[in-house]
Each structure stands twice: as C-alpha cells, then as structure tokens.
Design goal:
The protein is of the alpha/beta class and 257 residues long. It has helices at 2-22, 39-45, 50-59, 61-71, 90-110, 126-138, 155-173, 177-183, 186-190, 238-250; strands at residues 31-35, 75-82, 114-118, 146-153, 203-206, 225-228. Helix 6 (126-138) links the parallel strand 3 (114-118) and strand 4 (146-153). Helix 2 crosses helix 3. The protein is globular and about 65 Å long. Keywords: Magnesium, Metal-binding, Transferase.
Length: 257
C-alpha cells in the first residue's frame, strides 16, 4: 500500500506543482530567509544517525536555490548553524561543520550564485571561517542571486556586533558619546548589520513545524511575513516551497502595522 501511495504521489505532484506555478501572482518576495530545521529529527524518524540527517539536509540546499531562481527571488538567507549550535557535543559539531564546508564549496564551484557568509566567523574554527571567506571571494564576480550563508549566526549577536561596529567607527572619527547619542537612529545600526546594503527579508520560512524565530534575522524581520511548514528540512519539496511563495503573494502586507 505504501509503495502504491508513493507511486501516485510521483505522478500527481508534478502536475500539482505546474498548476501552482501557473497560478503564482507576480508579487513574489525579493528576499527569502529559510530556517533549515529538522535534520536531526528526520534522522531519528528514519532510524539513521545525526550526521546522515545533516547530509540529507545539505543535499536539499541546491534544489532550494534552483526553485528560488525559478520564481525570480533576488536574495536568499540560509540559516545553517546558530551560535547556540556551537555548544553541541564536539563530535557532532565537527561532523556538522565538515558537512557545511563541503556544501558551501559545492555551491561555490557551480558559480551560479554569489555567496556571502553572515555570522560571527570569529566563533568558528579558523578552517571553517577560511572556507566560507574563500567561497565568498570565489563567487564575488558572479552575476546571480545573492545567497547569505548564516553560520555561527545569532540575531542578538548580530545586533551587538552592529552596535560595536558603529561605536568603533565613530570613535575613530572622534565623535563623543554625547554627540553620537543625539544622532544615532535605526538606519545607523542597519548600516552595520551582517546584511548591510541588502533588502530586508519579505518572507521567512521555517521547516519542521516549529513556530518561532529562534533568533533568526531579529532586526531585519520586523516587517517580514512568516510561513511555517510541517515537513522536516530534508523532506522539504518544491511543492512546499511553491505553497510558501503563493501564501506570501496572497497576503495583504501591512508592513508591521
């Protein structure tokens, strides 16, 4: 029975996906943030080890970016590793970092997308930080979608880093704290975020059924729309992505009001 159902899905899903694509409104998001959540739970559900779950998740990144290209998205932010994740057991963290490095290298080798690391790279092992920087340099001249690779990323840490950078900048200019306090505003801080110069995310997608931000793009997502999907990240399909884009396009955006 299970094989029969899978066979039916293989036949019907492409037809359904094509129908969803035809009916997509024109107002697709410019910037999509994706919280790639559920790798470990997926591995547990299928009786595999954690590393297998992370590898299955990594394998789904390239298809996602292809789907984003297909509908005309300009910027994608992928949250691959949080600052909290850095406290995981050493053996699990080492394996996960290796998987992330391999995935980023593979994306860079294709030269389809411009990669941009976002996060506290100083918290990562030097080898991982260097691999991320090398991927950014190797794709800096690519005329394609901008892909933010969030590794060692935490929203609170980003805001703290932005304020610290702002203070250093004005200290170098000789600005006093009193003078800075009189002029500093939202835009000043935005200019020092990891994503400075980029549009804020219009849509944030989180997989695995969790319905919380968990520190993802805290500053930038103040006016974002959110879409929560029940599927674990390795099971996230093109049809799930298209549903998220359709749901966004059909909403009446109130821009935080």
């Amino acid at each position: 029975m299970a094989d029969w159902k899978r066979g039916v899905r293989r036949v019907l899903y492409p037809v359904y996906e094509a129908r969803v694509v035809r009916r997509l409104p024109d107002n697709v998001p410019k910037h999509v943030g994706v919280m790639l959540d559920g790798n470990r739970r997926w591995a547990k559900a299928v009786g595999r080890d954690t590393a297998t779950g992370h590898r299955a998740g990594a394998a789904n990144i390239e298809p996602l970016l292809g789907w984003c290209d297909e509908v005309g998205i300009q910027v994608v932010t992928l949250w691959l590793l949080s600052t909290d994740n850095l406290n995981r057991p050493a053996d699990e963290l080492e394996a996960l970092l290796e998987i992330i490095e391999e995935a980023v290298d593979s994306l860079a080798d294709q030269r389809r997308w411009r990669l941009h690391p976002v996060g506290a790279l100083d918290l990562l092992p030097a080898s991982t930080a260097e691999r991320l920087k090398a991927a950014a340099e190797a794709t800096d001249d690519v005329d394609g979608m901008l892909v933010n690779i969030a590794v060692g990323y935490g929203g609170r840490r980003e805001i703290a880093d932005a304020v610290r950078s702002l203070l250093h900048e004005h200290a170098a200019r000789g600005t006093s704290l009193e003078e800075l306090a009189q002029v500093v505003d939202v835009e000043h801080i935005s200019e020092h975020l990891y994503t400075k110069g980029q549009p804020d995310p219009d849509l944030v997608i989180r997989t695995s059924g969790e319905q919380r931000l968990g520190g993802f793009l805290l500053w930038q997502s103040a006016r974002s729309e959110f879409y929560f999907c029940e599927a674990y990240w390795p099971d996230f399909r093109r049809v799930d992505f298209l549903r998220a884009i359709r749901a966004y396009a059909l909403r009446e955006r109130r821009h935080g009001s």
